Amino acid sequence: MRASLPIPENWPRAVLAGVEAALTPWLLTVAGAFVTYVATASAPGTGNVTWGSAVTTATRAWTLAFGGSIAVSEGVISLAPLGLTLLAVVLLAGAVRRRDAAQPAAVGIAAVTYTTTVAVIAVLSGVGSGRHVLGGVAVALVGGLAALRGTALPAPVLRRLGDAADPIRAGLAGAGRALALSMLVGTGLVAVSVAVSWDQVREIHDSLRPDAASAVVLVLAQLLYLPTLAMWALAWLAGPGFTVGVGTSYTSLGATTEVLPAIPVLGALPLARAPWALVTLVLLGAVVGTWRIRRSRGWRDVALTVGVFGAVVMLGFLVLGWLASGSIGPERMSAVGVEAPVVAGALTGLLLAGFAVATTVRTPRARAGLVAAVSAVRAGLVGEPEAESAPQGDVAATPATAPTGVTAPTGATIPTAATVPTAPSFASALTGATAPTAPSAASAAVSSDRPTRPER
């Protein structure tokens, strides 16, 4: 008989973690909808809005984080606020850890509970089921893996992986850091662009004439889309770029613009050319390859680490690119964002290039070869000039061998390989001085009777 899977003792805490992580962002979204409803209840054109419709609208906005959509009068809004998506991942990982359920079996229970809660909320709120349920599964998987970060793998898994466990772990760790640092770089680019174009952003905001409550909601909504804009910035940095409507293109090689909707942050879209910017991603990959990545012991470990790194980074950018693309209105605004496969491939290739080089040069064989090459270059560039740079008349700079006549008491000695005369240095050639050779006893006796030539 097949043994049943063991149920962890802390399964109630895992269930609570999944429910808590799913309910918290939904309640925050509903609270924001209620504030907006109360602030605009007396405004013209809102007479048909009820509490129930406000909850349904808030739930639809919440499902955008999982790939859902909102139907409007003339189109569909499907662009995901990645800030809300990342918040859901962080809340799930935090809830699992806080309730001491960071074990593989307990995390699986929390992930199933999370996905079920997302589906139930959507159905009860009148949204129904759809691809946002699949998005909930993806968020549950990522949040569960984040909760397991830093924990030891089960013993059966370690035994099955064998020597491949360390390279796989290094590749996974490097991929996580690369994704996080890349999004941080993209966020920094957005912040710099907004700061540079602040006057135009402020002008668009003032043209909307929002009241206090509407201004708060508008700012919060743009903050939730900040990671989405960061993904656009990375696409611009890598080369393929992004679009804000049909017929537009924003890349580091140039921009093609059209009339844009009155959204303040769109006043900071990049128009400058910067083809050199993609080097930033190569350097970022090299930094990740040298930052707390265990040195690989051989080429097999390097290949496995780099392969895992590339696969995970590619998958991560595919998901982020898919969520960072969609529609924000009818007609031209039905195509907004990036081409996920193209952008993911470009980002992965640039990061992988830097990561592979940094990981390869840290292998013992590569380091030994590098040290040998540096030593050879130094010997060729430094050793010979030192022999030629001796001052004139300084014969002591050239080593002299001891004459065999001193060490051998016989009447005539035969010079050996150790007593071969050394070549005169460049300085002694100029001054006429010669390096002492190894004379025999007979030649020393003859030379002692020969008068020396007076110096001129």
Description:
With about 450 residues, the protein is mainly alpha-helical. It has 2 domains: about 10-150, no CATH class; about 165-380, no CATH class. The chain contains 17 helices and 6 strands. The protein has helices at about 10-40, 50-65, 80-100, 105-125, 130-145, 155-160, 165-195, 200-205, 210-225, 225-240, 280-290, 300-325, 340-360, 365-390, 405, 425-430, 440-450; strands at about 70, 75, 245, 250, 255, 335. Strands 1-2 form a two-stranded antiparallel ribbon. Strands 3-6 form a two-stranded antiparallel sheet. Helix 1 (about 10-40) crosses helix 2 (about 50-65) and helix 7 (about 165-195) packs across helix 11 (about 280-290). The termini are far apart. The model is unreliable at about 385-455 (pLDDT under 50).
